[in-house]
Design a protein that fits this description.
The protein has 486 residues and is an alpha/beta fold. The chain contains 16 helices and 14 strands. The strands form two sheets. The chain has a seven-stranded mixed sheet. A seven-stranded mixed sheet has the order 10-9-8-11-12-14-13, with helices on both faces. Helix 1 links the parallel strand 4 and strand 5. The longest helix is centred in the middle third of the chain and has 18 residues. The relative contact order is 0.09.
Length: 486
C-alpha cells in the first residue's frame, strides 16, 4: 500500500514524504504543481495537511492528486478555513481561501473528481508549543458542535454566520472517483426520447425513464402506487386550533402570491384538491387548469368553482404523466402533495416539459426538520427516557405512511434535479403542531393570537430551514428547453 504525505506534516512512519525543500531520508523531493513522480492509479492514501492553500493553481494540484490515486483512494486534507481572514492570509505564501463547499464542488469535475466522505470545521486549531485559552477552547467546543451537527449545518455556517466567528481550519476526507460525472445533457435527451416512445405505446413516464440514474433522496423505499380515491376526509379534520387555521390559510395565500404576476397567463395546479387558489386566480383573468387523480376532489373543486363564480378547467390524471403539450403553461403549482406522488422525479421532469421557457413552478413541501419538529422530537425523546414508555400514535414529526419521501429544506434544494433551476425559497408558518402551542393560542385574545402567528410567520419567511412549510420557485433549465426545441 502506497501512502503519500504531501508537505511532510503528519510525522507518520508508514508514508512517503513529498516536499520540494525539506525532505526526510526516506522521502522524495518533488512539488505538487510540478507533478508527482508516481504512475497513474498507483497511490492508496494521500495526506495533504496545509498544502493546497499554497498551490499556485488549485485545479492543477487537485488533478495531480486525482491522477495518482486509485479508484476509491482517500485524500486527507487540512486547510485554513476561509471564514478566518487572519488564519487564511497571515502567511504571505497562501494563495487561496478554501471552504468545505470548495471541495464538495469537485464531485462534478471530470479530471479531478472527488466525493466528499467527511468534513469538519474547527474553531480552535492546536498549535505546537501553545495552549489555547481555556475560555477560547470552551467556546470552540460549543461552536464546533453547532457548526458540525450535519452537512446542512456546515453549509449554513459557511454561508451565513461562520464569517462572523472565524473558524481556524477545515478538515475533509475526499474519495477519488475515476468514473466521469453523469452527462446530464445526454441523459436528458435519452429521457425525452424514452418518454416520447412511451406515450406512443401507452407506457407511463416513470416506466420509460426507469433505466436512468435516479436521485437517491427521493426514491421511495417500496414500490408505491397512486392514490386515486382520496378525499377531503383524508386530510385535516376540524375543529381547527388557531395555529392550524393560520397554517392552512397562510399556505394557500403564500402559494398563490408566489404564482401570481401583474399580467395573467395559463396556470396549472397539480393535485389541486378543492382548487381554491386557482379559482381565485381565474377571477383575476388567469386561464386556470386543475389536475387531480381523485374524482372526489375534482367534484369538490367543480362545486366550489360554481359557488365562487370561477372558471376552472379540471382534468383527472396523475402528476407523473401530465396530459399537456410541451411549453403549455406560464405557471405550474403543487401545494403539499409532491411527497405523496409515487414517482416525484418523473413529476419534476413533466413540470419542466409543460412549462414555457420563461415559466415558473411553485412547489410547497412540508418540512419535517422544522423548528417545531426538531424541538418536539427532542422533548419526546427526553420524556421517553423519564417515563420509559413510547408514544402510542405516530408523532407529528414522522411522515405518514403514504409519503414517498421525507420532506426537508435540504431535500427541497435537490428537487429540481437536472430539469429545474431553483430561483428562491421562502418559509411559511412556525411552530405548527408544537405540543401545547395551539391550546395556548386559544386562551389568548384573538388580536394577540394573530399578531403572534403573523410575527412567527415573518420569521419563518426569512428562515425557511425552521419553517413548517418550504415554498420553492423554479424555472426550467435552459439546456433542457434547448433539447426540447432541437
Amino acid at each position: 500500500m502506497i501512502k503519500l504525505d504531501i508537505g511532510c506534516r503528519t510525522q507518520r512512519r508508514d508514508v512517503i514524504g513529498i516536499d520540494p525543500y525539506l525532505v526526510p531520508s526516506d522521502g522524495v523531493k518533488a512539488a505538487l504543481d510540478a507533478g508527482l513522480p508516481f504512475k497513474d492509479n498507483s497511490v492508496d492514501v494521500i495526506y495533504a495537511y496545509h498544502v493546497l492553500e499554497h498551490a499556485p493553481d488549485l485545479m492543477k494540484a487537485m488533478e495531480e492528486l486525482w491522477r495518482v490515486c486509485k479508484e476509491g483512494s482517500l485524500v486527507y486534507v487540512r486547510v485554513p478555513h476561509a471564514s478566518s481572514s487572519y488564519v487564511t492570509w497571515v502567511d504571505p505564501t497562501h494563495r487561496h481561501g478554501l471552504t468545505i463547499e470548495t471541495f464538495a464542488a469537485f464531485a462534478m469535475q471530470k479530471r479531478a473528481r472527488f466525493e466528499l466522505d467527511y468534513a469538519r470545521l474547527r474553531f480552535v486549531t492546536p498549535r505546537a508549543g501553545a495552549e489555547p485559552n481555556p475560555l477560547r477552547r470552551l467556546l470552540g467546543n460549543a461552536l464546533d458542535s453547532l457548526a458540525n451537527h450535519n452537512r446542512a449545518a456546515q453549509y449554513r455556517c459557511e454561508r451565513w454566520w461562520g464569517p462572523w466567528v472565524g473558524f481556524d481550519e477545515a478538515f475533509v476526507i475526499l474519495r477519488a472517483v475515476k468514473e466521469p460525472p453523469p452527462d446530464h445533457r445526454r441523459q436528458a435527451v435519452e429521457a425525452r426520447r424514452a418518454l416520447a416512445v412511451a406515450r406512443e405505446d401507452g407506457v407511463s413516464a416513470q416506466a420509460a425513464a426507469e433505466p436512468r440514474e435516479r436521485r437517491r433522496n427521493i426514491t421511495p423505499s417500496a414500490e408505491p402506487k397512486p392514490d386515486l380515491d382520496y378525499s377531503l376526509e383524508d386530510f385535516f379534520r376540524g375543529p381547527y386550533r388557531p395555529d392550524t387555521r393560520f397554517y392552512i390559510d397562510r399556505l394557500s395565500e403564500a402559494t398563490q402570491q408566489a404564482a401570481d404576476r401583474p399580467w395573467p397567463g395559463r396556470i396549472l395546479d397539480v393535485a389541486c384538491g378543492p382548487a381554491e387558489e386557482i379559482i381565485t386566480l381565474s377571477q383575476r383573468g388567469w386561464e386556470a387548469w386543475g389536475l387531480d387523480a381523485s374524482q372526489s376532489m375534482l367534484s369538490l373543486a367543480c362545486r366550489k368553482a360554481r359557488e365562487q363564480g370561477g372558471e376552472v378547467l379540471l382534468v383527472r390524471a396523475i402528476a407523473e404523466t401530465l396530459p399537456f403539450r410541451d411549453s403549455s403553461f406560464d405557471r405550474v403549482t403543487c401545494k403539499g402533495a409532491m411527497d405523496h406522488f409515487a414517482h416525484p422525479e418523473a413529476f419534476v421532469q413533466e413540470v419542466a416539459r409543460v412549462l414555457k421557457p420563461d415559466g415558473l413552478a411553485v412547489i410547497a413541501l412540508a418540512n419535517y426538520e422544522s423548528l417545531s419538529c426538531r424541538v418536539g422530537r427532542w422533548l419526546d425523546s427526553a420524556l421517553q427516557r423519564v417515563r420509559h414508555k413510547n408514544q402510542g400514535e405516530r408523532p407529528y414529526w414522522v411522515p405518514p405512511e403514504d409519503h414517498t419521501f421525507r420532506g426537508t429544506y435540504n431535500q427541497v434544494l435537490d428537487l429540481g434535479g437536472r430539469w429545474l433551476e431553483l430561483k428562491g425559497c421562502l418559509g411559511v408558518s412556525l411552530l405548527w403542531l408544537f405540543p401545547g402551542w395551539g391550546k395556548t393560542l386559544e386562551k389568548l385574545p384573538k388580536r394577540l393570537t394573530w399578531t403572534i402567528l403573523r410575527t412567527a410567520d415573518r420569521a419563518a419567511r426569512r428562515a425557511p430551514t425552521m419553517a413548517d412549510v418550504v415554498i420553492s420557485v423554479w424555472s426550467p433549465r435552459a439546456e433542457t428547453k434547448g433539447q426540447e426545441t432541437a
